[in-house]
Amino acid sequence: MADGVQNAAVICCFMTPDYQISENCEKELQCAADSKIRIIPCMLGDQNNTEWKPSGWLKLVTAGLNYVKIRDHSDLNIRLKAKELIGRIKNQYLPPAEERAPAPPKFFESIREKYLRENRIKRIVNEEKSFPIEQSYINLAMIETKEQQEKEKKLKEQDKHGRPDRENDQDNRRPYQHNEILGTYEEIYGTKTSINVEEIFQKCKGANKKVLVLGRAGIGKSTFCQYVTYRWAKHDLWSEYELLVLIHLRKLTVSRYPQGKEYSPSDIMKKEYFPYDDIS
């Protein structure tokens, strides 16, 4: 038993009352903890007692660890949590020292910690109140190219005929017209297919994967970006990427980035995240 535990890269323990009272399970997990092997606790709980939590030795061994919560035994939740567990196993596996890639720069972790702190969304009506970002529902759809050309024509015609003649009217109608065009784009540009957040890059065939997120003002584009950076920081999403950087386009102004100079991604990241630090 000891050899099996010590040769493991990661130990996953599925916590239930029966697991907690098992002497063999206690010895295995304690051996893993003593050997400094990574432990991923999965909370199955007790169907007869939804408030059950580990206690005694199990509580001590798993204290401070981030649980994979599988109390909800619905098919959808099981699938989601299985993906989360697989992602964490991949992320937490450490190959032998001679095979390891160089450790990422320290500022990578600073960015990750920032995303973890930004774990709540302010309400639109009352910004003093907020709710956990994990409760946010992000509904995404992929736009197919079927009948795309005909629908593009319709969109261009609306844009052309919708332009007002008078300058004042143009200023007054611009916000409305912008949302109107975006709404039409969403409605007619193509056939939409629902897609999970985890799968959006799988549809990209090129080496450089690019995804354009469209939507009316207030529909949730910024919330979506905050949501994925938070899940990445928790190792729940896209763990194959060492760094995920969120840049708010509204900050890329001429006053902050004067013309006449080319700005690299690292230049922008330094200004937005580390204006007073040297990250070179």
TrEMBL record:
Record-annotated membrane-spanning stretches: none
Database matches in SUPFAM superfamilies: Toll/Interleukin receptor TIR domain
Signal peptide per UniProt: none
InterPro entries membership: P-loop_NTPase, TIR_dom, Toll_tir_struct_dom_sf
Gene3D superfamilies according to UniProt: P-loop containing nucleotide triphosphate hydrolases
GO biological process, one term: signal transduction
Residue ranges of the region described as Disordered: 148-177
Residue span(s) of domain TIR: 1-73
Superkingdom, natural source: Eukaryota
Comp. bias regions, Basic and acidic residues: 148-174
Pfam family, one: TIR_2
Name the UniProt record assigns to this protein: TIR domain-containing protein
Organism listed in the record: Rotaria magnacalcarata
